[in-house]
Amino acid sequence: MKVERIKAISLDKKIAQKYAEEIAFQQIGQPIKKVKYLGGGSFGRAYKVTFEDDKKIVVKFLRASDMLEKEIYDLDLLAANCSVKIPSVLFSRKADDEIPVDCYGMELIEGGNAVFSLGLLLSSKRKRKQFADEVTTALYNIHCHKNDKFGDTLCPTYSRWLDFYKPFAHQILIKAEEMFSNGELPQKVIFTMRAAWEKFDIIFSEEVVEACLVHGDLNIANIMVDKNHKLSGFIDPLNSMYADREYDLFQFDNLFGKRFYLRKTYVEKYGAGKYCDAKCAFYGLFNEAYCYIKSGMLVSFIMNPLVKNMNKRLAEL
Ligand SMILES: Nc1ncnc2c1ncn2[C@@H]1O[C@H](COP(=O)(O)OP(=O)(O)O)[C@@H](O)[C@H]1O
Ligand SMILES: [Mg+2]
Questions:
Q1: Phi and psi torsions of 147, nearest 5°
Q2: Ligand 1 nearest atom to the CA of residue 112, by list position
């Protein structure tokens, strides 16, 4: 996982819609009724393609040249180890002169992501807790898939979690320092990162015994919900690894994840180490800095609460 800026390949939304139509026709060989943009973040763009016979698939473009192999590998690996639906990959296509962006086709998951599920967000505490129960059961399923070594799913080679994670976090800190010197990172972010790094050995003093498969990006924008507000699937893994299973818990607090008691429910059901709160604060802050380094986009409404939370957890140590 390289800690450096990745220049996103430019891709106009309307042109991508045409590409999605062309690719779906080439790959599936059936006439298409319509193509609709579903959403996307720094590097992804997803489109729903509906064929004349009403069959639907999703075509996702990846605007960075080194993501395709890992994303489709991780989707397959997670799908084989999870009790809820993770889209199966139908085809993949590397960029060429005709269509200059990598992409793949996958199964459509019913419903929409949990961020836009107003019905679920506003439902009773009992229903939200029931949802948390379903999500955490499925995530724990993934975590039960273990490996002898830690590291990226494509090449897990580390005997200890910290042999992998500490140098990675350190590289993030070094890059963040560079950005701070160039006036590209707010002072409060770097001060908090430095303070957290100082306490690294305390926060990570408990040995991580098992290398568990993690999704890596399970915030509520990547959790799908059907029209009855029931969990319908997980999508969009990022940085999937064999890791500390608590690495998957910080994303639960991003966006309005706390409204669903996701992290709390996971910890109640499956337990966590003494420093779980501080570790999640650290993972969250350093991951957001990593995303900023890669994409060049600072998302203040995500970064600011992470900084605040890290300072709170540091004060508790
Ligand atoms: N397989 C799928 N089925 C249904 N909707 C999907 C699927 N994949 C993506 N989406 C929709 O598209 C949005 C963006 O896709 P996502 O894979 O999360 O992109 P990014 O990597 O840019 O975050 C998701 O939030 C979801 O609403
Ligand atoms: Mg996503």
A1: -140, 160
A2: 27
Tell me what the mean pLDDT of segment 186-200 comes to: 98
Cβ(87) to ligand 1 under 6 A? yes
Q: How confident is the model at residue 210 (pLDDT cuts 50, 70, 90)?
A: very high
**Which CATH number, 3.30.70.560, 3.30.200.20, 3.10.105.10, 3.30.450.20, labels domain 13-107?**
3.30.200.20
Choose one of 224, 238, 254 to mutate for the ligand 1 pocket test, by most ligand atoms within 8 angstroms of C-beta.
224
The domain at 112-316 falls in which architecture?
Alpha-Beta Complex (3.90)
Q: What is the pLDDT of residue 293?
A: 97
Which residue's entry shows tokens 């889209």? 87
Q: Regarding beta strands 241-243 and 211-214, do their DSSP bridges make them parallel or antiparallel, or are they unpaired?
A: antiparallel
Ligand nearest to the CA of 218: 2
Nearest CA to ligand 1 atom 26: 113
For residue 232 and ligand 1, the question of a CB distance below 6 A is answered with: no
Residue 129: in which H helix or E strand, if any?
Answer: helix 125-143
- % of the chain with per-residue pLDDT over 90: 94
| pLDDT over 70 percentage in the chain | 100
Pocket flag, ligand 1, residue 235 (CB < 6 Å) = yes
Has residue 255 got a pLDDT over 90? Answer: no
Q: Give the start-to-end residue ranges of the domains of the chain.
A: 13-107, 112-316
Closest CA to 214 of 134, 141, 302: 141
Nearest to 46 by CA among 64, 68, 61: 61
Binning pLDDT at 50, 70 and 90, where does residue 304 land? very high
Q: Is the CB of 117 within 6 Å of ligand 1? A: no
